Amino acid sequence: MRWKTIFRRHPESQATPPPLATPFDEQFLRRLERLALVSSRTLRGGLTGGHASKRRLPAPTVADHRPYTHGDDLRYVDWNVYARHDDLHIKMGEAEQDIGVTILLDGSASMDYGSGPNQKWLVAQQLAAAIGYCTLAQGDHLRVQPFGTTSETPFSASSRQRGSALLAYLAALRPGGQGNVVRTFIDQARSGGNGLIVLISDLWYAQEIDAALKQLPPPRWQIVVLHLLHPQELRPELDGDLELEDSETGLLETLHIDAAARARYDDRLYDWGHGLERACVRRGANYVLLTSAQPLEQAILPFLRARNVLR
Amino acid sequence: MSVLAPLLLGLGLLALPVVAALHLLQQRRRRVRVPALELWHDPTPLVRQRSRRLPITWPLLLRLLIAALLALALGRPLLHSVTGLPTTTALLLDTSTSMAATDIAPSRLGAAQLEARRAIAALRTGDQLAIIDLSNPPRLVARGGPDARTALEAAVDRLQAGGHGGSLQAALDLASSVQQSNHSLQIVVLTDTANHAQAPLTAPVSVDWRTFGTASDNVAFVAFAARSTTDGLHLYARVANLGSAPVARTMNVALDGQLTQTEPIRLEAHTEAEWSWPLPKDTAIATANLDSSDAFADDDQATLLLRGNTTLHALLVSPNPSPLERALRALSNVSVTTARPDSYSTAGNDLTIFSGYMPATLPPVPTWIVAPPTSALLPVSGTSDDVVADSVPDNRFAALDLHSVHFGGVAMLQPPAWSGIALGAGSTPLILAGFHAGQPVTIWSFDPDQGGLANRVQFPLLVAATLRTVTTGLDQSWTLGDQAPKTLHDPAGSAIDAGTPFAATGLYRTPGNQPALTVNVLDAEESDLSPRPAPVIEINTPTTATTTTRDLGRELWLPVVGLVCLMLLLEGLGMQLRRSRRTPQAGRL
Lengths: 311, 589
Hints:
A: 2 domains, 3-stranded antiparallel sheet, 9 helices, B: alpha/beta, Immunoglobulin-like
């Protein structure tokens, strides 16, 4: 039996508040300075940069030797070895390289969910800012490619001085469309090159994630999938007769939600998340499930370090 | 229990659907925006959409009950004591000719009779029902309680449509007179409202006016007669379209059973047209009919019985020379013979006129009595002068403008039961008309010698109209509802006894198969089937019994409002209890 007044207003009718105007505070920016992006040695880049490479090049720091061949630079001949073995060997050393880091930022309408500091889009902006700033701080080449946002103009930078421009660029982005992960990956593959791909998305309507990852195979590409969900998506507290509206498609579904329905949702969520993780593992990508309720610096970054993404 | 304000009750009950609609609105499903429906799709019945219907909940039932009680309070319910007074119901049945219309099944009168039977069946112990025939004059045809249901139903079944309808005020007066002591009075009028005076009427209680019939178009004969001109005898017919749309008909005229004329008729709405044809000598019967029947078939035909240049032989019996003689002699086809009261014989005369004289018994011929002295048949309590007519219940005198006529020597008569007022001044009858011993009798209560009436232009017109009244049937033209003067065979060949009202139009014959008389409608007012608004009936001083009955009732609106307040209090407490028990739902979207 329900006792309600006829004219009672429902608290559920409140609108989602707009995202914060400034998603990055000063303390957060200082922490970014201390972060370093750890990239895999399998990545190949230019001849500058602070990342170790498996390319054996003649270098002052000897790590290995190889027989001399015609045309080698005589400056790298190890004369001590020649004196001892009477053979010419070239000193091989580790050459430092820079890498290209591409952040694929999902700005579809489903990311505009939640309110306050737990809003998914806000957390996604902070994640992109943290990873992008670390990339620039290491002197790596950064490219931010949003998809599903109102504007999909990419951002590119290679120096730390462009950090403020990165933050301004991210703050100006607005979610609201329908994102297509596969198309975004295909576009990335067509652009050529290699590097580290960081996908920040809630992966709704991304059933073809396996096909998308197939477009960017390792070792040429290293992919990190940051699966960002709101706590209400992980454990919804909906109850009763509700008319659910899909934030991306606008479709309406009238449902009666009770404990059994919520249990079925949990089961499907578990299967869905594990399916995504398996697909990532199969394609050599790192899969990380995040919730927007976790404090960025206390939970996300240590987790990224544990996953060998940050140093 | 009854309600004093049923209109407010009805308006209040309109709140019930409003309450239900508000609940349905409140139960409308809340819309929640979710990132994706991908994981919510579920074909199982537990999650699928449920039908949108009004949930029957205790708050809904409680609020509907509150709304219904408030509506009941608005209607001012009146609780009658079980020891309340029984009711005398006066049922006034309109039996005018228009009630024979068949625009509703089986007819207007048939529907009214059915309603009367329902009232008879609903009689409770101690109740009384009076059946009043709203004819001219109104008459009480039956009266009784639940034990007299059979007699009451038989009386209702005997009623037939005919005539021009009686005085409604006289019928209301008759209805108020049937109220028994310690009985409440209820007056119900069953009518088609086609022909009733619209003058303000009075009744002791409010009148339950129940109307039968619809606005039906009708084409009718309103005149069908033979006229003598210099060219000989002519047949005259007038047809009226009493409907609101143009009509096309064909009129067939037959003389002595032989079709002689076929006239196409096209009449605009509310118009009339006339035709005239020369009549051959020795024509006995003229008949006219319209080809298609409508809701009122009786006025679609007219029959005329011709007997050549029949002269009306009138015997004027008067102790003194009467101005009537001069007026009668001025009329064509009237032969007047005068006689003194002590030496007259009615043999061989079609009409006997007594002026200033009243015999001990009326002769077995149509009789016209003028300024009667007091007698056993017509007691006179006195005379009055300078009386002006103000009511004309009989439309045969309606065409006369008598407002400027001052009647003198008016005898204060108590109208006999067999007569009705045809012309009156208040309750004083000036002209009475009726049938006595099967013969038409018309009474002038005034003396034309006094008041100057004999010198007014209205006098010969009044004489002619009275002559038509008193000689009804002498020209063999009767109307529906008139009583048969003798045993006759109706147009269908069935025998009817003397005194039986005519129930069908057409030619009536004697038992020897000789044409005797014709029965027609020929009444434009009765043929006009369009219903009129109910007349205004003012309530005069309530009867003692009615007042007593109202005192026995107790209005219940105050207890009902108190009950509503109690239920509202309970609902408020329930809501408060519900709120206090409701646990906060943290983290709701």
